[in-house]
Amino acid sequence: MHREIEQNNELLSDGMLNAINRIVYGMEEIKGSLLPQTVDEFNLFKGEDTQSMTRRLAENTIQKRSVEWIKENGICLDAIRPGKSNIPGAGWGAFAQGFIRKGDIVSPAPLLNVANRETFNIYEDEVDEETGEVVDSTVIGQQLLLNYCFGHTASQLLLCPQTNSILLNHCSKRTPELG
Predict the structure, then answer these.
(1) Which residues pair with 159 in a beta bridge?
(2) Mean pLDDT over residues 119-142, rounded?
């Protein structure tokens, strides 16, 4: 946006930025909440590359926790480890690191919400040598992480596990005890 504003000698007002924020927030609440709220905040990012800007946004929006809070409220993720199964054709699975009592939480399963499955597309770009601009992009594959995500074929939304929980076996027969 900074580049567009400079190239076209445009002025950005808090009202214009507010309108942009409402549009983005309406489409995707989380992304909208990360946008600068004022022109002064917007100008803090001037000249930063995407990686620096993303890091700064993350640092400003992630709630930092003390070691004491983590000890009191955190869940240790060392109950299981990934490993190759000795069952022929079974692939990889989760293995207990020690004794797990009945009813214990083995591993929490936080999910990353990906609003558009096309995010996982891998592209090969054709670049105009004179201008350096991308003139054509062709999808040549998909990110491997897609294999571990859950979603419905009629929806763009994917839920991607962020822990070893994806390696746990599941029960195909529900009982009152298992839910």
Answers:
(1) 113, 150
(2) 90
Burial class (CB in 10 A: 0-12, 13-18, 19+), 158: buried
Kindly state the tokens that stand for 135.
């003139």
Closest CA to 110 of 72, 164, 64, 153: 164
What lies within 8 Å, CB to CB, of 20 at 6+ separation is 35
Q: How distant, in Å, are the alpha carbons of 7, 80, 125, 142, 157 from that of 139?
A: 31, 36, 9, 8, 19
DSSP state of 38: S
Tokens of 67: 């070691």
Residue type, 174: R
- Pairwise CA distance, residues 45 & 59, whole Å: 14
CB atoms within 10 A of CB 153: 5
Across the chain, what does the average pLDDT equal? Answer: 79
pLDDT of residue 140: 94
- The answer to whether residue 178 scores a pLDDT higher than 50 is no
pTM above 0.85, yes or no: no
